[in-house]
Input
Amino acid sequence: RLPSVSLSPAKLDVQPKLINLGTLKVGQDSQLELTLENQGSRLIFGSLSTNCAWLTVTETDDAKLFQFRDSTAITVQVKGQHLRAGNKPIDGDLFIESNAGTFKLKVVANVPIQAFPEGCLAGARSPRELAAKALKDSRQAGALFESGAVERWYMANGWTYPVQGPASNGMAAVQQFFEALGLAKPPKVFITEPRLQLKGAPGDRLIRQIQVRSEEPRPV
Output
């Protein structure tokens, strides 16, 4: 019953609905600024979150809480270490939930593939293409695998290197790569003793040798 001026309800507006970050590079951090505006009255409060690893709105990767009357700017970080190079643009979503409306914003970017730079594998732009080149010249390719050049190329494109552990030597490193990609079956191995039964007193150190063998003429 007190004298008052009627206030219009809060109304959230977010522009633009599609954010294009252009060309990004694997490993390079950047950021974008998102502006939220109130086209009505009263207070707007809510949260901002994301669904992809290469976008984050807080240091702890949790949702960002906000409140404002007229407008506010929120910084969204782009984590370069989580970017993955590819022939198609990558995309992620930003979700805004508030008392004045709910929005879903799409963020897109291009992360171009870096071609393999050297030797007989030069120009390869995918693991399959690199494997095809390695098959043609396994000896020279083995040196590139052994030196870690192929693993560094994977890292430069943000891809997970399929070979776990240290690389083999020479042509065996090429075989190791093919097996990790599933392009070649690994050699069959067996052990001489499938079951060990030992007996000793507490504190004794018991030693038994087992032999791992393969009848195939390929490195294991």
Summary: The CA atoms of residues 55 and 186 lie 39 Å apart. The chain has a mean pLDDT of 90.
